[in-house]
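I have been asked to look over a protein record a colleague put together. This is what I was given:
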Amino acid sequence: MKTAIFILTALCAGWAAAAHAAAAAEKPPATVPSVDLEKYMGRWFEIASFPQSFQKGCHCTVAEYSMTDKGYVRVVNTCRKDAADGAVKTAKGKAFVVDGSGNAKLRVQFFWPFRGDYWIIDLAPDYTFAVVGDPSRKYLWILSRTPQMDEALYREIVDRTAGKGFDVSKLVRTDQTCAGR
């Protein structure tokens, strides 16, 4: 009898967790309440991401953000192609804050007229890490101010991200072993 109760309890707990994850995935993920853009500007190292075709073969991926006097954010993404010592690949774009989002939602444009969603869904109080996703949950990046992140912190971030309905099994760690930064 105890075994049956244990199995029933485990099944219910598993069903409840699956139902919670499914419900979280039905609506867009929540963003952080607000972002101080001045603090957000600067260099961010990609710690992990959902693999995207435009990042194929990238190592040592870095994003650099800077405010322009025209009111948008300049975006410069760089990586090393095919190896940590490979040729530098650069993509330049613009990011525009979505009104009413507390600066937590941006629209990024690398090729006119196409823009993509850039939602800040997790952010350290001291701006040492950020998690960026999109409403469809097809895109995800874990960013850090340093090329390496403490493993316990990484696991906490991944767990919170899973709680927002992202399939974290698709996360791939980014090689950040480049010398000569």
